[in-house]
Amino acid sequence: MVVIDVEVISDVVCVWCYIGKRTLEKAISLYQKTYPGGKEDVFSVMWRPYYLNYNPSAQSVDEAELREKKLSGFTPEQVAAMTKRVNQIALSVGINFKSGGKVGSTRDAHRVIHLSQTKSPDIQNALVEKLFEAYHELKQDISSRDVLSEIAIDAGLDEAEVDEWLSSGLAGDVVDDEAFKNRKMVTLGVPRFIIQGVHLVDGAQDPQEFLEAFMKVKEGKS
């Protein structure tokens, strides 16, 4: 048996990070089904913070307002083509992106992910999945502590612990420091996947990119 460590540097409001999560999961499933001895191997996935800072203000704002500013240099035809491409790729991995909603700080979301990492891997994975779904598909404001609390409890975290965690600011400095270091390290944007501390996969790549890295780890080439 081999333990394959995967660190994922991402932000919850990142479209490609959500797609990348599904692609990673597809690659893990393929590896365990097809590679000799793969079903015996264990994957340890850890989610690391990154601040895209789409909205640097203290209050949430309409996504449409930020989107208009971000894409102001493109023609309507170019925006439509980019949106269509992203939506097609998302649908291919089971994601149905919606427009609208609010965009705010993701700092508290990353703090709750940090809390989940003191629990079981299943709780961490469930929380990250539910955060992505809440923002991208359900159009919930994940900067809202009420929304975050509901998502965290649904993922399996204790209600009292979550409420204390969110109200106290615990691990805020830890998350900030890590996000700062990750921003300096990652020059091509997120997501970035670091496999066994050595192999890098940037962006929401084809599952084959992950499979090649997994096989190198299995064969002792890392």
Q: Would you mind describing this structure in some detail?
A:
With 222 residues, this protein is of the alpha+beta class. It has nine helices and six strands; from the N terminus they run βαββααβαααααββα. Helix 1 packs across helix 9 and helix 6 packs antiparallel against helix 7 (159-168). It is globular and about 50 Å long.
Topology:
Layout: E1 3-10, H1 15-34, E2 42-49, E3 61-62, H2 63-70, H3 76-92, E4 102-103, H4 107-116, H5 121-136, H6 145-155, H7 159-168, H8 172-185, E5 192-195, E6 199-202, H9 207-218
Parallel strand pairs: 1-2
Antiparallel strand pairs: 1-5, 3-4, 5-6
Keywords:
6 strands, two-stranded antiparallel ribbon, globular, 222 residues, four-stranded mixed sheet, alpha+beta
- Rounded to the nearest angstrom, the radius of gyration is 18 Å
Average pLDDT level = 94
List the helices and strands in order: EHEEHHEHHHHHEEH
Total beta strands: 6
Q: Based on CA inertia axes, which overall geometry fits?
A: globular
Low-confidence stretches: none
| Termini separation | 16 Å
Largest sheet: 4 strands, mixed
**Binned strand content:** 5-15%
How do the strands of the widest beta sheet line up side by side? 2-1-5-6
Helical stretch tally = 9
* Structural class determined from secondary elements: alpha+beta
Helix content: 40-55%
